[in-house]
Amino acid sequence: MRRDDDVPEPGRAAEPGLAPEPVARSLSGLVPGPGPDGRPRPDAPLVAVTGVTGYVGGRLVPELLAAGYRVRAVARHPDRLRGRPWFGDVEAVEGDASDLDGIRAALDGADVAYYLIHSLGSGSSFEQRDRRTALTFAQAAREAGVGRVVYLGGLYPEGEELSPHLASRTEVGEILLASGVPTTVLRAAVVLGSGSASFEMMRYLTERLPAMTVPTWVDNRIQPIAIRDVLRYLVGSAAMPADVSRAFDIGGPDVLTYRQMMQRYAAIADLPRRVIVGVPVLSPRLSSHWVSLVTPVPGGLARPLVESLVHEVVCDEHDIARYVPDPPDGLIGFDRAVRLALARIQGAGVTTRWSSAAVPGAPSDPLPSDPDWAGGSLHVDERRVDVDASPAALWRVIEAVGGERGWFSWSLAWRVRGLLDRIVGGPGLRRGRRDPSRLVLDDAVDFWRVEALEPGRLLRLRAEMRLPGLAWLELRVEPTERTGDAGGGDVDAAADATDAGDAADAGTAGDPATRPPTVFAQRALFHPHGLAGQLYWWAVYPFHGIVFGGMQRNIARAAETAERARTDVPRTADRRR
């Protein structure tokens, strides 16, 4: 391994980017490869993947499909995978890794099982949760006759007292290795990729702070690895010989300190060199609060990440290359990994983020379909308004709520609510969105998550903020009276056009003067838990008119403005005539 101590010049030429091709392309002969139709063959090995809603799992599934494996995606709520582009190519099954009977059934018939589950950021008892879940999964894999288990753990130094996070990841690996099933444990340090928690933490610290005081551990050595190389090792591990059952260190070609990584990031991002002063008084706990304040990563997730940086994490061996050869062009270095990640972010091409998985402990019960739900009281704030815009124009505004665009109402109130949520350990508003304009089922949107999505019709968000109850926000485009061919802006046309990527034209068909108004319906729902929940609802209820009423009015106004902007400009066909 080489060590890079020099920070490159800001104007240094960028290395050529990687072609957008599957990592399996360089694993020919090791993986089965797809059939003539580009899909996995019927007799291809079956791999079961847990953690498919997470950052790594969501990216691993399409790579396994491209490698020619049949994939079984295991999730507690498989219906929530419907928005994934690969959903139609996998077998989606229900399975909870902490439930022995359920996970055993989900693993039945699988040749390989990927264990990509952890309780990172779920509170002080995450070690016990991880231990119980790993023991259950190990027993289920053995009883289901799985041929191999593959686990992505953390790189750690030998002979040191580990942070709780690294100690737990290490213990999970040992449990799986002792399962009686041949197991591959991949141990990685900082993962560099668009949307990874480690990358986002470094990115925001560097971009937002031209000068900073930092703990002395920023000078510990770290061997980061690009997410693309992590995926390559994960895919290649499925084909390891049956007599191989061990852990492997995996890392990229560069060994750097965290200080050097921030300076190199600044150079690549064309930022001035950062002033970084190390001080011995910042504990991991204090550092995690600072990270939570400055970056989108909440304190519950920041703390275990920061605690892990206290250790020097450098690979002791590169034995993985015996079974998964290095790519022909070599492993991806730090600079190239950062450029690739930034290109993804700037091009809105981030497929998964650290927030892709639901917040640990967040409610998962479905929204009661009946307002008179027998489970208890359900408070509803419902509003409707006619919008002088096509359904498609209104839907585009609805689908883009949150993130950088905000919530179309009293922004100070939203910022204060987000700050309070982060103070008590919630995700807050800084979590943002994966894509600025399009949503898929289960996407995170600030401190909400997409629970239901019907393009052109319905967006239902479930609150993941800390609340004494369960809350939802529902935005609907409701059907209006059809006007025949001249009224082609009806909601069905809008939905079809949205799915086809051409919603803008669907909503402008016909004469706007004769088109019936579009109905924008909005509901805020809250199921209180106990007296605290009741008090919370009535305490915030007086502000609903300002927050939710203003939100509805401003969304309607934005849709009408967008509609007028389109109809005031001659269409391409008219200009050609």
TrEMBL record:
Pfam families: DUF2867, NAD_binding_10. CDD domains: SDR_a2. It comes from the Bacteria. Coiled coil: none annotated. GO terms for molecular function: protein-containing complex binding. SUPFAM superfamilies: Bet v1-like, NAD(P)-binding Rossmann-fold domains. Residues 1-43, 482-515 are annotated as: Disordered. Residues 491-513 have a biased composition (Low complexity). Residues 51-185 form the NAD(P)-binding domain. InterPro entries: ComplexI_NDUFA9_subunit, DUF2867, NAD(P)-bd_dom, NAD(P)-bd_dom_sf. This is SDR family oxidoreductase.
